[in-house]
Amino acid sequence: MASSADVHVRICGQEIIKYDLEIKALIQDIRDCPGPQSALRELNSQVKEKFIKLRLRIQDLEQMAREQDRETDRQAIQAETESQRRQMLSNQTAWRKANLACKLAIDNMEKDELLRGAENQSTRQRKATKESLVETSSNITESLMSISRMMAEQVKQSEDTIGTLATSSRTVQETNEEFKNMTGTIHLGRKLILKYNRRELTDKLLIFLALALFLATVLYILKKRLFPFI
């Protein structure tokens, strides 16, 4: 029948094996961890707890070895203790390597995300720049069309002004011609007055006729200028 000490040794050994397997499983989870850093920290926290429990159970097993009465039992338990201690050190080494590999993978992934984000931002900026250039080009085109319309209106106004000046010039020329004609008529009247100066009645008649002709001419010009519709 197994003694109480043997039972405790077996229970302690089973717990050590259980913690060892749990640590190995957590180390594999760390290798496969896709991130983020918070998930990695949570896994590391669990591994630390398991290592603390494992170390305590190995110490318990070592203490049990010293309490054994038979040398063979003591040596067997000490050998198991050393084996478990070496396994624990191996797990610690594997744990550190898994952490390094996982951190490197997470860093690379974050860098890739940053690069993709920068590329997306650059693409959005190029799109925004292109839209801005299109809008600017459209505004410039509208401005040029507006300037063109204004220039066309100015040209039309200039043409109308030139036409008005040309009409006014023709009117002035016609008026000058009429005044020239009137001047010739006055000269003719003066000659008639001089010719018939010796004859008072005739002269007066000629003067009256000349004046009447002059007045008629003036009235005609004034009528034509002031009342063209009559």
UniProtKB/TrEMBL annotation:
Bilayer-spanning residue ranges: 205-222
CDD domains reported for this sequence: SNARE_SEC20
Entry keyword Cytoplasm: no
GO biological process: retrograde vesicle-mediated transport, Golgi to endoplasmic reticulum
Coiled-coil spans in chain: 44-71
Protein location: Endoplasmic reticulum membrane
Domain (Sec20 C-terminal): residue spans on this chain: 136-226
Keyword RNA-binding: no
One Gene Ontology term of the molecular function aspect: SNAP receptor activity
Keyword list, A-Z: Coiled coil, Endoplasmic reticulum, ER-Golgi transport, Membrane, Transmembrane, Transmembrane helix, Transport
Membrane-topology annotation of the record: Single-pass type IV membrane protein
GO cellular component: endoplasmic reticulum membrane; SNARE complex
Region of interest (Disordered), ranges: 115-136
Protein family according to the UniProt entry: Belongs to the SEC20 family.
Protein name: BCL2 interacting protein 1
Originating gene: BNIP1
